[in-house]
Specification:
Belongs to the asp23 family. The chain is of the alpha+beta class and 110 residues long. The protein has helices at residues 9-21, 34-41, 74-93; strands at residues 26-29, 51-56, 59-69, 99-108.
Length: 110
């Protein structure tokens, strides 16, 4: 018996969002769009908040919108996120991301 496994974009976004939350210096994720912002106001946050999955030539891309902790090196945090996300997606989902972009949209004291 053979079959195939299909990983949805929503599952991929959740994996990426959960991974980003584990990185030191990440306070949280920022709404990536108006719909996500409204969901948060209404109290419906998801693990995939702040993650936008796209396609580039048949491969997935990931844009992460983060809030960084005050005083951290944002380039270092962004590199750590990129490295960890690409590793986790490759290892746990078997997917190579075409690109991973981290957008620091805010800084917050913790």
């Amino acid at each position: 018996m053979s079959g195939s496994i299909h990983i949805t974009e929503a599952a991929l976004a959740s994996l990426i969002g959960l991974t980003a939350h584990e990185i030191p210096g990440v306070v949280g994720m920022a709404p990536a769009n108006l719909k996500e912002g409204l969901s948060r106001v209404l109290g419906r946050a998801n693990a995939s908040d702040g993650v936008v999955i796209g396609k580039d030539g048949g491969k997935y891309t990931a844009d992460l919108y983060i809030v960084a902790a005050y005083g951290v090196s944002i380039p270092t945090v962004a590199r750590n996120i990129t490295d960890r996300v690409e590793h986790m997606v490759r290892h746990h989902a078997g997917i190579e991301l075409a690109s991973t972009r981290v957008h620091a949209v805010g800084v917050q004291r913790v």
